[in-house]
Amino acid sequence: EAQVTQNPRYLITVTGKKLTVTCSQNMNHEYMSWYRQDPGLGLRQIYYSMNVEVTDKGDVPEGYKVSRKEKRNFPLILESPSPNQTSLYFCASSLPGQLYNEQFFGPGTRLTVL
Amino acid sequence: AQSVSQHNHHVILSEAASLELGCNYSYGGTVNLFWYVQYPGQHLQLLLKYFSGDPLVKGIKGFEAEFIKSKFSFNLRKPSVQWSDTAEYFCAATPSNTGKLIFGQGTTLQVKP
Lengths: 114, 113
Hints:
The complex is a heterodimer of chains A (about 110) and B (about 110).
Chain A: E1 4-7, E2 10-13, E3 19-25, E4 31-38, E5 42-51, E6 54-57, E7 65-66, E8 76-78, E9 87-94, E10 104-105, E11 109-113
Parallel strand pairs in A: 2-11
Antiparallel strand pairs in A: 1-3, 3-8, 4-5, 4-9, 5-6, 7-8, 9-10, 9-11
Chain B: E1 3-6, E2 10-14, E3 19-21, E4 23-26, E5 31-38, E6 44-50, E7 56-58, E8 64-68, E9 73-78, E10 87-95, E11 102-103, E12 107-112
Parallel strand pairs in B: 2-12
Antiparallel strand pairs in B: 1-4, 3-9, 5-6, 5-10, 7-8, 8-9, 10-11, 10-12
């Protein structure tokens, strides 16, 4: 089944404890992206990647890191999480020419930073 | 700055009522437009998209949207809503030559049976 998977789905952590949220897709998509969803703000793009080893900042990259060492995986790293990073996170992927193709979203990761 | 605005944050309708959700974007160049839907407990999924051509776009589940370039708008419509349309709806835009996808704030639609 074609899908985008994220792990973990739920995570409660404490301020300053490094964490990684994994994202993997099995559709051979070049483009991958991370978003955070907050009430009243919709989804905001954190980082995106056009292809392996190519990443760019979205609108809210502060406090996050990403890497794209292989096509299928695009982990989101929080080196020192803070309470304002408590949010619902979505990973997405799409075919080349992402401007024109729909993005397929993962199920979301609900992160709480205490 | 590039942005997408959705006018209605929370809409409540009765079944069979008509729906129109507003969406405006602020970008003067070529832009590609999308409506995504998020049903309770489910992934975001694409309803419809506009890239070029006929400004009236038809999507899944009887939804349609009209691109009006002069108004920078891409409003979503459905002639007769059903209880199963209860969901959150997001308008989004991709300015050309960028990898960014900019979402609006979202509109929560509640359809009463």
